[in-house]
Design brief:
By secondary structure, this protein is mainly α. It is built from four helices and no strands. The protein is globular, with a radius of gyration of 13 Å. It has one domain.
Length: 84
Amino acid sequence: MGSVPLRDNHDSVRVRFLSSRCRDADPVRRLLSIAAVYDGMSRTEAARIGGMDRQTLRDWVHRFNAGGGRASLSTARRRGRRHG
């Protein structure tokens, strides 16, 4: 099984710029892992940078490719009333 290719309209500089504009740490970690892949780092090492495993990085790469920006890497917030 081959690795999922990254979008060709971004590069590591652009992805790092996107990460610098984030306020939430989770998408920043994901973007920095993706930027490391753009730089040629192995997916295993890039996943380690973001504190995830290679399969999780692969899932985030799919979301990044589909959405193309930091919003696609944000964790969905639950809406509605809190219970408790």
